[in-house]
Design a protein that fits this description.
Elements (H helix, E strand, L loop, with lengths): L5 H7 L9 H17 L4 E8 L6 E7 L7 E6 L6 E2 L5 H10 L11 E9 L5 E10 H16 L1 E3 L3 E3 L5 E3 L17 E3 L9 H4 L23 E6 L4 E6 L5 E5 L6 E7 L7 H4 L1
Parallel strand pairs: 1-14
Antiparallel strand pairs: 1-2, 2-3, 3-4, 5-6, 7-10, 8-9, 11-12, 12-13, 13-14
Length: 275
C-alpha cells in the first residue's frame, strides 16, 4: 500500500482484520517519509506485517525507477527503526525450505537448524546438523515468495516503456465495475512466467505496453483467489487462499488500488484439499 494513501487504504481492507494501532499509524506517518528521503526511493509502500511468537515484523518496500525490478525491502519492530533485508537468492530459498519449517520467532539473529538422526554401530543415536539458516534470511525469502505468488495489480495500472522499464501508469483511471468482476483483469506484479496465457491473448484488445504480466485466472490450483465486493459494493477485494492474510483492494473507476499482507509468513499447503 502506497504510503501517501496508507490510512485511507487500510480502512478499505479492515474487513479482513488488516489494521494497525493508532501508535503504529502515527509512527509510519513520519518514518516512511524519512525512508523515502534517506534511501532516495521514488515511492515507499507498507508491504505488511509478519507475525512472530515474540515480536512481529513490519515490512516496508521502497521502489526506484523500475517499479518491478528496483525494489528494496526493510523490516522494523516499532515502525520507526528500519533495517534493510538482503535480496533473496535461489540458494537462500533452498536453505530456508530445508531448515525452517516452524513459526517465526521475532528475532532476526535466531538460527534454525535441521537435524538428522542416525543410529551408530553401538546402538547410540547420533544427531547431525545438516542445514542452518538465520531468521533474517528466512524473512527475506518469505517476503520474496509472497511477492512472487500473490502480489496483485489491476490491468493497466502499470506500463512498460520502450526501454523496458515498468512505471506507474499515470493515465490509469481504474477498471469498470464489470471488468473488476473478472480475474482476467487482475495481474501478478512479477516477471511473466506464462507469457502465452490464452486468457490474455484472446482478449482482442491486447497491448504489449500493459499486457506483459500474468493474469490471476491462470493460477493453479483454480479457486486460489476469493473475489468479493465490499463497502456497499464500492470496493473490489481479492484475498489469496494460498497465502492467507494477503488482501488486495481496488476502487472501480478510480486509480486507487493496493495490497497488504498480514499473516504468519507460511504457505497454506492444505489449499488443494480445501477446494
Amino acid at each position: 500500500m502506497d504510503s501517501n494513501s496508507l490510512f485511507y487504504s487500510l480502512d478499505l481492507v479492515a474487513g479482513n482484520g488488516c489494521t494497525l494501532s493508532v501508535e503504529h499509524r502515527a509512527a509510519l506517518q513520519t518514518s516512511m517519509v524519512l525512508l523515502k528521503k534517506n534511501y532516495k526511493f521514488h515511492r515507499v509502500l507498507l508491504w505488511g506485517k509478519i507475525f512472530g511468537l515474540n515480536k512481529d515484523y513490519f515490512i516496508a518496500q521502497g521502489r526506484g525507477e523500475d517499479e518491478m525490478l528496483d525494489k528494496k525491502n526493510l523490516y522494523s519492530f516499532n515502525c520507526m527503526d528500519w533495517f534493510l533485508l538482503p535480496s533473496a537468492t535461489d540458494s537462500m530459498v533452498e536453505e530456508v525450505s530445508i531448515a525452517a519449517k516452524r513459526r517465526f520467532i521475532g528475532d532476526p539473529s535466531f538460527v534454525y537448524e535441521r537435524l538428522e538422526t542416525s543410529e551408530g554401530q553401538d546402538g547410540a543415536v547420533e544427531s547431525e546438523v545438516v542445514a542452518t539458516v538465520s531468521e533474517e534470511t528466512r524473512l527475506a525469502v518469505a517476503v520474496h515468495q509472497i511477492d512472487e505468488e500473490a502480489s496483485v495489480v489491476p490491468r493497466g495500472a502499470f506500463v512498460k516503456s520502450p526501454r523496458g522499464l515498468v512505471h506507474v501508469n499515470r493515465s490509469f483511471g481504474g477498471l469498470s465495475h464489470s471488468e473488476a468482476k473478472k480475474l482476467d483483469n487482475f495481474l501478478h506484479f512479477r516477471k511473466a512466467k506464462n507469457p502465452n496465457q490464452k486468457s490474455i491473448l484472446e482478449r482482442g484488445d491486447l497491448s504489449p505496453a500493459i499486457d506483459f504480466l500474468d493474469a490471476l485466472s491462470g493460477d493453479i490450483p483454480k479457486g486460489s483467489w476469493s473475489l468479493q465486493y465490499e463497502c456497499a459494493g464500492n470496493v473490489c477485494v481479492l484475498r489469496s487462499l494460498l497465502w492467507l492474510g494477503l488482501t488486495f483492494f481496488h476502487l472501480p473507476m478510480t486509480p486507487q488500488h493496493g495490497y497488504i499482507y498480514m499473516g504468519d509468513g507460511t504457505q497454506n499447503l492444505n489449499l488443494p484439499f480445501m477446494l
